[in-house]
């Protein structure tokens, strides 16, 4: 079996919870929070007019993490990226037309309140309503979404989707949007507090439309990823 | 920046808990169970005499998972491999002498009781006492070990290190060896039973040296990887 020239690339699914559309039954601003992914539209063939994940070819002088950050910086300010992690490698021989490209896929997360400036060909799309996507990029988005949902259940990864401080009502919106189904605010607060994932700041948010008691503000205890739900009996001795 | 020819390879850290040496204070057979990794000794330069992980070059007609299994089959019968998963990609430009090689690293697990036939250049080494290793292969072993320890805390991954049925005493030996520190049998049984990770078979093991009550035999409830410790409040609606 001969070995022909192969290109290595990075591809990043950058997610943010964003408010789309207009829905009077929905929350603040009458808009519905949804998980969104950053895509750019191909102006040239192959697959002109389809939508792609940001990414590109690995250079000789950089490793993949550096390359993924460099490629992303062309689409979105990397200082706005609160988390970046490797997913798996997409290496099916026919995933794109020749020459072969092996893609290292990444998951990137941007907090709710940032509003990155985007190039003209780039925009956020709700993952529930994706446009016609290039090559196997939709599979990468599905994979990234599955990883995010799994990590929401045993890590503090939501720190990278949340603002610095937030009410439980906002945090519930973020979890619901990222998971794609409803979760209960009281349960969420109880479990995240017991695991010390979130900490009350002592401050409160300005009263909402309905008046009433001002809501307590929380923050994430850590700003780096950690497993929050580890098996206590297996913790290393301290 | 020019793009020169780059090779893509797989590298697998295959782990098994094995009994090494002779220690009268240790368990069955007077031997001490330890986490071991499968290595082969390089007969040629570069780095002749150092020890390498099994792996090799990706072919044009296969994806990386297929390639990792094919390369492994040359060292160990793949039917004996109870679990294989991608770790991260090792892509530092200078990780090996030119030409550049990008390595997709894998974690592979073999159950306690299997005894694969090995080629003459290949042997098991305790991870606590590794020989002089090739290139960045020791970093891959460290990474694989960290992933295994993390997954022991929130998944049922130990199914791939355990025999089909086992006593709690044997399962504790497996956890201790894989984690590198002591865990308590009673805690282990309570937590794994509560999470339905293990199930009693109803049978008992033959009496041990000390006579006394025969020990209950258990099995893993599932033979595929699952997150056992997910956040109940975040489970999808059923």
Plain-language structure description:
Chains A, B: InterPro entries: NUDIX_hydrolase-like_dom_sf, NUDIX_hydrolase_dom, WH-like_DNA-bd_sf, WH_DNA-bd_sf, WHD_NrtR. Chains A, B: It holds the Pfam family WHD_NrtR. Chains A, B: This is ADP-ribose pyrophosphatase YjhB (NUDIX family). Chains A, B: Residues 17-148 form the Nudix hydrolase domain. The structure is a homodimer of 238-residue chains. With 238 residues, chain A is α+β, with helices and mostly antiparallel strands. In chain A, 21% of the residues lie in helices and 26% in strands. In chain A, strands 1, 2, 3, 4, 5, 6 and 7 form a 7-stranded mixed beta sheet that branches. In chain A, strands 8-9 form a two-stranded antiparallel ribbon. Chains A and B meet through strand 5, helix 2 and helix 4 of A and strand 5, helix 2 and helix 4 of B.
Provide a short characterization of the protein structure.
With 238 residues, chain A is of the alpha+beta class. Chain A has helices spanning 64-73, 137-154, 168-179, 185-194; strands spanning 7-20, 32-41, 51-52, 55-57, 83-90, 101-109, 122-126, 198-204, 216-220.
């Amino acid at each position: 079996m001969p070995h022909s020239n192969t290109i290595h690339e990075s591809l990043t699914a950058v997610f943010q919870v964003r408010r789309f559309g207009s829905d009077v039954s929905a929350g603040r601003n009458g808009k519905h929070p949804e998980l969104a992914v950053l895509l750019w539209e191909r102006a040239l063939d192959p697959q002109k007019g389809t939508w792609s994940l940001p990414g590109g070819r690995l250079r000789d002088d950089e490793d993949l993490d550096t390359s993924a950050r460099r490629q992303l910086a062309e689409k979105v300010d990397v200082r706005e990226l609160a988390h970046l992690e490797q997913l798996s490698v997409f290496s099916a021989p026919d995933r794109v037309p020749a020459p072969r490209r092996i893609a290292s896929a990444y998951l990137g997360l941007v907090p709710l309140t940032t509003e990155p400036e985007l190039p003209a060909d780039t925009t956020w799309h709700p993952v529930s309503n994706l446009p016609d996507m290039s090559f196997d990029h939709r599979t990468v988005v599905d994979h990234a979404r599955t990883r995010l949902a799994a990590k929401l259940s045993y890590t503090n990864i939501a720190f990278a989707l949340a603002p610095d401080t937030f009410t439980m009502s906002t945090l519930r919106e973020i979890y619901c949007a990222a998971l794609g189904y409803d979760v209960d605010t009281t349960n969420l607060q109880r479990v995240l507090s017991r695991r010390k994932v979130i900490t009350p700041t002592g401050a409160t948010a300005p009263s909402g439309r309905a008046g009433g008691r001002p809501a307590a503000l929380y923050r994430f205890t850590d700003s780096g990823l950690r497993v929050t739900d580890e098996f206590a009996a297996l913790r290393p001795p301290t």
